[in-house]
Amino acid sequence: MKLKELLHAIPVQQLEGELDVDVLSICFDSRKVAQDSLFVAVRGVHTDGHLYLDTAISQGAAVVVVEVLPETTDTGVTYVLVDDTSYVLGLLATNFYGDPSKDLKLVGVTGTNGKTTIATLLFNLFENLGYHVGLISTVQNKIGGRVLPATHTTPDPIALNSLLREMVDDGCDYCFMEVSSHAVVQQRIAGLRFAGGIFTNITHDHLDFHGTFDNYIKAKKKFFDDLDRFAFALTNADDKNGAVMLQNTFAHKKTYGLKNMADFKAKVVESHFDGMLLHVDGHDVWVKLVGGFNAYNMLAVYGAAILLEQETMKVLTAMSAITGADGRFEVLRSKDGVLGVVDYAHTPDAVENVLSTIRDLRSGQQQIITVLGCGGDRDKTKRPEMAAVAVRLSDKVIITSDNPRTEDPMAIIRDMEAGVDAKDKKNVFTIAERREAIRAACHLAQPGDIVLVAGKGHEKYQEINGVRHHFDDREVLEQTFNEQ
Ligand SMILES: CC(=O)N[C@H]1[C@@H](OP(=O)(O)OP(=O)(O)OC[C@H]2O[C@@H](n3ccc(=O)[nH]c3=O)[C@H](O)[C@@H]2O)O[C@H](CO)[C@@H](O)[C@@H]1O[C@H](C)C(=O)N[C@@H](C)C(=O)N[C@H](CCC(=O)O)C(=O)O
Ligand SMILES: Nc1ncnc2c1ncn2[C@@H]1O[C@H](COP(=O)(O)OP(=O)(O)OP(=O)(O)O)[C@@H](O)[C@H]1O
Ligand SMILES: N[C@H](CCC[C@H](N)C(=O)O)C(=O)O
Ligand SMILES: [Mg+2]
């Protein structure tokens, strides 16, 4: 592609060098630069892409996009000076891939919890309605039936636009994607055209990255601020910050809720371990998901489908048929009647929701035994809170490791233990080895008891010091149940 075409609608401050240049690829990592690449220097958390200009040029970059021009420039290279390279990277990626988001209906889901669930349910619902659909999520990306591995909740702008291009070329009518707060702040979605945005909720997470809760709110809100007047913005009327999200949006505002007044209303009529009966907009509908929080997710899905002009009865029928994402409230049963639940709860709010759901569903005084760890290199302040809520709502808790990443597992465990009151310590055990922790929970359980294994859900690995070792909570639980 010619550089001139690539720079269409890009706010360029200054250009030094040739404009009539062919660009064969774009990248923001000097290690991936090839002959005739365009390299965008981005400032990151650990380092600054501007430090790698020489490497990029020596590897063949024909164009470099920068926020600061170097003191000496190379004559064979074109320098493009811009204000914000992260933002411009998003625009360049949409131009390079032919602006794919304008050729399908793209709906983004943001919020602390529920993004994967809602995006996956919408993907399944629209496939059920007969459309060709794309999905971009934490668990996996999909183009119809084709599964592509996911590395992030929201990919970088190049991966994202390349994926959207493939979806358009494959004939997708819709794409449902997760929009993480990291993605908003890092401008991974700059330049995309959304047909709609959905807000789930906002509670404690990622304060390591955003610094304050206020900044975290602002990051989520920016997604809605940037929607255009043709899009819809669907928010949770029962969330304290639901209205704030839509304060400055140009989009068409709509709400959903179980408690407060809303455009889309629902009520949970009956709850069981294998599903619940919902009353949605005047109709009864049986869904295969469990828990009040999933009633919100289902209602958001219903609202979005109606805003995307689908027929009510067809939507309700499809809602009964679909399942959610892997590793979310997955129920397993042992031969002697112990119930295992694997769930991706990795925030205090999610742990509280899952445990409250289990407490509401148990028929008698069965014990609830929770196995829980917290991720390393992530928000440290959520650790004691997650432990405290697990202890408050369980009969016994086994504190263990999640993905320690580069941290010492015992240091993470100590942060969690700080949230446990002295009076509760007798019901709290520490077993750092996750496999052993799950096995111990199963051995402590009597027939009828419930073992909740929280935090890793669908993940098939445990990340320790940069290495991902095979680990699957469901597999370990199943193996242990089979041995008993
Ligand atoms: C904290 C965070 O979001 N980090 C992301 C960020 O990396 P970074 O800021 O550390 O980048 P950096 O290492 O400082 O490098 C700065 C720049 O220099 C460039 N560079 C660097 C070295 C070199 O030799 N040459 C070079 O050009 C890099 O390519 C980069 O452009 O930019 C990278 C490229 O896009 C991401 O892969 C990386 O995600 C890391 C792996 C990550 O773990 N991110 C998590 C926290 C994340 O994004 N999570 C969210 C939400 C999770 C959820 O709740 O669902 C997600 O959307 O997945
Ligand atoms: N609407 C909701 N409100 C509160 N908690 C929820 C909701 N939906 C799901 N959860 C809980 O949060 C966990 C994660 O759900 P899900 O994967 O859908 O969220 P996510 O927003 O995609 O998370 P991530 O930020 O990791 O991508 C679930 O396993 C469940 O425990
Ligand atoms: N997307 C979330 C997932 C957390 C999952 C948990 N297992 C952990 O590793 O902390 C994050 O990167 O913060
Ligand atoms: Mg997710």
Automatic annotation (TrEMBL):
* Listed Pfam families: Mur_ligase (PF01225), Mur_ligase_C (PF02875), Mur_ligase_M (PF08245)
Cofactor(s) needed for function: Mg(2+)
- Pathway participation: Cell wall biogenesis; peptidoglycan biosynthesis
Residue ranges constituting the Mur ligase N-terminal catalytic domain according to the UniProt record = 26-97
Q: SUPFAM superfamilies under this entry?
A: MurD-like peptide ligases, catalytic domain, MurD-like peptide ligases, peptide-binding domain, MurE/MurF N-terminal domain
Q: Which UniProt keywords apply?
A: ATP-binding, Cell cycle, Cell division, Cell shape, Cell wall biogenesis/degradation, Cytoplasm, Ligase, Magnesium, Nucleotide-binding, Peptidoglycan synthesis
PTM characteristics: Carboxylation is probably crucial for Mg(2+) binding and, consequently, for the gamma-phosphate positioning of ATP.
Motif Meso-diaminopimelate recognition motif mapped to chain: 402-405
GO MF annotation list: ATP binding; magnesium ion binding; UDP-N-acetylmuramoylalanyl-D-glutamate-2,6-diaminopimelate ligase activity
Q: Return the InterPro entries for the record.
A: Mur-like_cat_sf (IPR036565), Mur_ligase_C (IPR004101), Mur_ligase_C_dom_sf (IPR036615), Mur_ligase_cen (IPR013221), Mur_ligase_N (IPR000713), MurE/MurF_N (IPR035911), UDP-N-AcMur-Glu-dNH2Pim_ligase (IPR005761)
Locate the residues binding UDP-N-acetyl-alpha-D-muramoyl-L-alanyl-D-glutamate. Answer: S30, T153, T154, S180, Q186, R188
Show which residues constitute the signal peptide.
none
Q: Please give an example of a GO cellular component term from this record.
A: cytoplasm
Q: Might you give the EC number(s) for this enzyme?
A: 6.3.2.13
Q: Which GO terms describe its biological process?
A: cell division; cell wall organization; peptidoglycan biosynthetic process; regulation of cell shape
Compartments annotated for it: namely: Cytoplasm
The Mur ligase central domain, residue ranges? 109-305
In this chain, meso-2,6-diaminopimelate is annotated as bound at: R378, D402, N403, P404, R405, G455, E459
- Tell me which residues make up the Mur ligase C-terminal domain: 327-457
PANTHER family found in the cross-reference section: MUR LIGASE FAMILY MEMBER, UDP-N-ACETYLMURAMOYL-L-ALANYL-D-GLUTAMATE--2,6-DIAMINOPIMELATE LIGASE MURE HOMOLOG, CHLOROPLASTIC
Q: Member of which family? A: Belongs to the MurCDEF family. MurE subfamily.
- Give the matching HAMAP family: MurE (MF_00208)
Q: What does this protein do?
A: Catalyzes the addition of meso-diaminopimelic acid to the nucleotide precursor UDP-N-acetylmuramoyl-L-alanyl-D-glutamate (UMAG) in the biosynthesis of bacterial cell-wall peptidoglycan.
Q: What is this protein called?
A: UDP-N-acetylmuramoyl-L-alanyl-D-glutamate--2,6-diaminopimelate ligase
Organism per entry? Sphingobacterium allocomposti
